[in-house]
Amino acid sequence: MAGDAARARLLAERARAASDRGASARALALFDDALAELDERGCDPLVADVLRWKGTLLRESGDTTGANRLYLRSLAVAERAALSEAKAHALNCLAIVAQRRGDLREAERHYKNAAELALVIGDHRLLGMIEQNLGVLANMRGDFESAGTRYRKSLAAFERAEDTKAVSWVLNNIGMLHTRRKEYDHARTALERGLEIAVSRGDAVVESIVTLNLAELWIGTGEIDRAAGACARSLANAQHRGDHLTAAEALTCRAKIERQRGAFDDGIATLRIARYEAEGSEDPLLQAEILREWGDISRAAGDGSGARSAWSRAAESYHLAGAIHDAAEVEARLSALEMH
User: Fold this and answer.
1) pTM of this prediction?
2) SS (H, E, C) the chain
């Protein structure tokens, strides 16, 4: 019925607004209410959209399996109803899940199919999103030049479309790339601009993620107290939203700060909590980051055996994630350790 569809659209809009504010539990309930008003066996594009939006909320909170299940349902609706736009978006989301799980071949296949559909229907925003995601993929592989090129193309597309939310996503990725390359002034410019956009939009999710990446930047520049403040804000925000993925990342960042301060026992305890938060995320890259820091703390504390064990497992997880550059860095640490 038309009235049901109209109510479903209103509920979905409220759910997306709640998600941006960081009210994840409220958003999930509203998405479920919207779906209850719709017929998943029908042809309404809203069904595919709501399933995908709810999946993304779960994915961003660390529930990878739940997200994948919803994306597959969204794809099924789109294919049955011949909804090209919805199909392209579902494929892009499935690619992100595959990428998180370390199945980079599957991710590239989905991105390729999504991009072909987006090009046919003229969905330039989705093409920009795919370009950004391919940049993340290149970054994981250590192809920083390609990552930067894709990010810049994506940023230009989103700026032309005046899509400020998407602009903040890309600025965050650009900032992370510059931090990784120790180009700290450029990193700060990108991240602070991304944070300003997120705050102005009331986007608690992006604000928390960008704040955490600013903390990583401050660690890189040696501003440990400043890093600790940003890390604590990001962690509190993530825990308030029930975002286990960002919480695990923030705890890993806190452990780095504790290592810098010589609080090695505190750092290991923090990493144990991070591993607990990361359970269920199916994210080998995150697991690798936690194990890498575990090895760094162990080495700093003089525990060569603990460092060797943690770094060995970190290298395995990096390989599983397709992060060849990071795997090589950790393997170099292992080699250096063996020489002492």
Assistant:
1) 0.90
2) CHHHHHHHHHHHHHHHHHHHHCCHHHHHHHHHHHHHCCCCCCCCHHHHHHHHHHHHHHHHHCCHHHHHHHHHHHHHHHHHCCCHHHHHHHHHHHHHHHHHHCCHHHHHHHHHHHHHHHHHHCCHHHHHHHHHHHHHHHHHCCCHHHHHHHHHHHHHHHHHCCCHHHHHHHHHHHHHHHHHCCCHHHHHHHHHHHHHHHHHHCCHHHHHHHHHHHHHHHHHCCCHHHHHHHHHHHHHHHHHHCCHHHHHHHHHHHHHHHHHCCCHHHHHHHHHHHHHHHCCCCCHHHHHHHHHHHHHHHHHCCCHHHHHHHHHHHHHHHHHHCCHHHHHHHHHHHHHHHCC
